């Protein structure tokens, strides 16, 4: 049963990534693109988690945690640059 | 405590399917909704909840099916639940900033451009930092 659920999860997350990519390419504003990148990071973390279940190894969660941190820092850096014209003042 | 294997597999599958559905619905909202302030709702709420569901499914899988107790996933979900509102707040601030600068007029939203907080002030993204606060460019 878990195999079918994992298949559905991979399909849903792949479709979600395609939708995010559409929003990333279309815009229309730079804020939409930042939001699309942020959502892509969250969906990729989901794919890593599902791959960890499918592979049966607990070693992929360091990658998920690292990606969560780097994605958050990236979003904050984009936003700070657009707000203040600089990242670290 | 031992849970029968079919029940454990059912719980894990249910959590994974619910999580995947919420993630897909959040991304569909990112495409479907008309303005940025509305689009913020999809990824920040639905997608984060969906990922929380998948992480709970992962905890349940390693605990109930394989018999290993792991908490890494809870760490990831706590981190995401803390940072998602912060990044959403920053994106909304950037949007307000660019609206007031006239650089993002095409997606205003149903309520229009928001007014300044009071008559004689402006949004914090447009004002110089006050004296004595970090970044006021006087102390350094």
Outline the structure in words.
The complex is a heterodimer of chains A (89) and B (140). With 89 residues, chain A is mainly alpha-helical. Chain A has three helices and no strands. The longest helix of chain A has 26 residues, at 30-55. By secondary structure, chain B is an all-alpha fold. Chain B has a domain at 5-101. Chain B contains four helices and no strands. Chain B has helices at 5-32, 36-39, 41-65, 72-101. In chain B, α1 packs antiparallel against α3 and α3 (41-65) packs antiparallel against α4 (72-101). Chain B is elongated. The model of chain B has no long low-confidence stretch (mean pLDDT 81). Chains A and B meet through α1, α2 and α3 of A and α1, α3 and α4 of B.
| Highest CATH level, the class of chain A | Mainly Alpha
Total of helices of chain B: 4
**Helix-strand category of chain B:** mainly alpha
Low-confidence stretches of chain A: none
Concise overview:
The complex is a heterodimer of chains A (89) and B (140). Chain A is an all-alpha fold and 89 residues long.
């Amino acid at each position: 049963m878990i195999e079918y659920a994992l298949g559905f999860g991979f399909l849903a997350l792949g479709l979600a990534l395609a939708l995010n990519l559409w929003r990333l390419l279309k815009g229309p504003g730079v804020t939409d693109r930042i939001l699309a990148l942020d959502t892509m990071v969250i969906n990729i973390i989901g794919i890593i988690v599902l791959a960890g279940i499918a592979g049966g190894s607990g070693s992929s969660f360091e990658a998920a945690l690292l990606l969560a941190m780097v994605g958050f820092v990236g979003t904050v850096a984009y936003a700070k640059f657009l707000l203040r014209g600089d990242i670290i003042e | 405590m031992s849970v029968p294997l079919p029940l454990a597999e059912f719980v894990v599958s249910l959590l994974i399917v619910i999580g995947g559905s919420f993630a897909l619905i959040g991304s569909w909202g990112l495409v479907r909704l008309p303005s940025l302030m509305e689009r913020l709702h999809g990824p920040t709420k639905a997608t984060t909840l969906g990922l929380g569901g998948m992480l709970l499914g992962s905890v349940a899988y390693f605990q109930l099916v394989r018999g290993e107790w792991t908490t890494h996933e809870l760490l990831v979900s706590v981190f995401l639940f803390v940072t998602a509102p912060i990044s959403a707040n920053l994106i909304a601030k950037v949007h307000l900033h660019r609206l007031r600068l006239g650089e993002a007029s095409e997606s205003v939203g149903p309520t229009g451009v928001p007014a300044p907080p009071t008559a004689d002030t402006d949004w914090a993204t447009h004002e110089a930092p006050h004296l004595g606060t970090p970044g006021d460019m006087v102390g350094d």
